[in-house]
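Protocol step 4 of 6: record predicted structures for both targets in the notebook before any analysis. Target 1:
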Amino acid sequence: MTIYLVILLTVLTHTSFKGSRVLISLYAIEFGATPFEIGVLFSMYSVFPVVLSVYAGKISDRLGFRIPMLFGACGLMIGLLLPFAFPRLPALYASAVLIGMCYIFYTVTVQHLIGSFGEGHARTRNYSLFSLGIALTALFGPTTAGFAIDLIGHRSTYLLLALLPALPILALLLFPSLLPRLHVKHEERHGQRVVDLVRDPPLRRALITAGLVETGLELFNFFLPIYGHFSGLSASQIGISMGAFAAALLLVRGAMPMLARRSSEEAVLSGSLFLAGGAALLFPLVSSFPLLTALSFVLGLGLGCGSPLSMILAYNRAPPGRSGEAIGLRQTVNKATEVVMPLIFGSLSTALGMLPVFWLEALILAWAGALMRREAPVRKDETG
């Protein structure tokens, strides 16, 4: 029962987080921000997580789950209240920095927690359930933000999103026994370095895969609000298009265990990356609401498997006692991607327009698909 409560609490916090990333783009446009400036805003979410993710994992390895999750949820709420209290562009930058700096502790810790609930097939099932919950937030967050913006405005939407983490904060404060205690083995940790994790070939491949998938996710989250706005879509229509992406995540993650059993994780990931590359190739060629929504759904089908598969692999391949650290290292790779790619995407779109950005991403995804296809027989030999 505990795992379902943890997923419910995470759905609330992550819905708020996902909604804020749509809201910050559209609010920045209202303040006259350029695509490059919006790219910088998006990067601010991930600057501190690049250096804090591994530390967050170590904290969860040593202190357990409750304290870092509580810290992350409180930081998320305060970060969302800043633009409500100070409705100007600098407050958006401060909000993005604070949310990113604090919420990474919740993100890394809850992924570590889900992995601790079981082993083998039970762990795979638990991560699949968790990834379905995260997919729901990709549906609820953008659609909630989009409709709320049209109904009550950007500033009040920040207040609405800030209310969502309140229940998780209260639950973690009032019911400390809600989360299991982490049984830490007090062993000497001298000589253990992060670089040792990177040197492990199977773990390194899982990290590379996570980063490549993240480029596609970041392109969609960053560019669809901007592209939809300049294509004449309302905030509600942008939210619906992003909700279609989330619906595809739900569908493909529900089918992921069956697909992997019939072939392999690498084959599933390879095919899905090729599909995502094709969708990215077509994106800049359409501008109508129905076609953008349809392509968002196809892109979601292509990118949906990558995150849960890389999460499972990172946990399973971590050395004993360092699973939280490995999960944090995976987040470091993801957050570094989230820092760099919006700046690259924003700069390219400002100078050359949006078409080269989508086509560059299509090439990256196609290359990643080819890499996974070549790697598949190697992985089978390694893991049996």
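Target 2:
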Amino acid sequence: MRPTRQRLALARLLFEGGDRHLTAEQVHDEAVGSGIRVSLATVYNTLHQFTRAGLMREVVVEAGRSYFDTNVSDHHHLFFEENGRLVDVPAAQVDIRGLPELPPGTEVSRIDVILRASSRPK
């Protein structure tokens, strides 16, 4: 991946503040607010390039709604449906049992669990 001016600016924006979960639109808004001249399409392309390079993970919470996670360690997520907030859940806190048998020649590369939380009706 070539270190273009826009990629470097977006990388600083994404990775200098610790672990984060952001949509492409949120990244674009932060970039524009920081004076970075970049299109939403470039933000999407850059986020997908960073994901393919292993620098981030894409977390799809529902069709058409993805977050990009700067934490690439082994962990899961808790998604709050009312406000769209996504938080990390340490892998050790989730007990996964009874995985299906995989086809010959394949192995589990990663398991992603998304817990969904919503307010209980009163």
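Step 5 preliminary note on target 2. The beta strands are 21-22, 57-62, 65-69, 75-80, 85-90, 114-117. Residues 7 and 46 are 7 Å apart (CA to CA).
Proceed to step 6 after PI sign-off.
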